[in-house]
Design goal:
With about 170 residues, the protein is of the alpha+beta class. It has 5 helices and 10 strands. Strands 1, 2, 3, 4, 5, 6, 9 and 10 form an 8-stranded antiparallel beta sheet that branches. A two-stranded antiparallel ribbon has the order 7-8. Strand 4 and strand 5 form a beta hairpin.
Length: about 170
């Protein structure tokens, strides 16, 4: 077995380092057809008495269509040596070709979702809330609107209950 399941409450992680420095892949779809993209913005915590991951997707991203159409998405993290592959997956669209094959990552297919065998940690998330777009009028720090959204392509927000945590088996 490549991964073992652990209880989310037993994890000793730094979500700030994991998201900002390591980056992650958000993957959604079916084992037959899925798409993935790199993310470095997000959050983890407790909401509605559940462990959650919060992801943000721009409207033009192909992966958003998969997240919208499925009940599950995965959020997966990788060792530093995969940063180049994650960069590629964040800069190319799956609409225009097989960016997964180009990345060199190996799909890890589960019953209702997908991630990649090179991950050290995979969160399988069940959507609880989503497809809510950020709005310019809601920014309290208005400098964020012009600095982060010059094209006005405001992110959509999704909350996913972390229903399974998989960590790479050692040895």
């Amino acid at each position: 077995m490549l991964f073992k399941e652990i209880d989310a409450k037993t994890m000793k992680i730094n979500p700030f380092t994991m998201l900002n420095d390591e980056w992650a892949l958000v993957t959604a779809g079916t084992p037959e057809k899925f798409n993935t993209m790199t993310v470095s913005w997000g959050a983890m915590g407790i909401m509605w008495n559940k462990p959650v991951a919060v992801i943000f997707l721009r409207p033009q991203r192909y992966t958003k269509e998969f997240v919208d159409n499925e009940d599950l998405f995965t959020l997966s993290f990788y060792p530093k040596e995969y940063k180049k592959a994650l960069g590629l997956l964040g800069s190319k669209s799956g609409r225009e070709g097989d960016k997964v094959a180009e990345s060199g990552l190996t799909p890890y297919l589960m019953n209702d979702s997908a991630a990649f065998k090179e991950a050290h940690t995979i969160f399988v998330c069940r959507k609880l809330f989503g497809n809510q777009q950020l709005e310019a009028s809601k920014f309290i720090d208005i400098s964020l609107d012009s600095s982060m959204y010059p094209d006005k392509d405001y992110h959509y927000m999704y909350f996913g209950e972390i229903v399974k945590v998989l960590v790479k088996e050692q040895g």
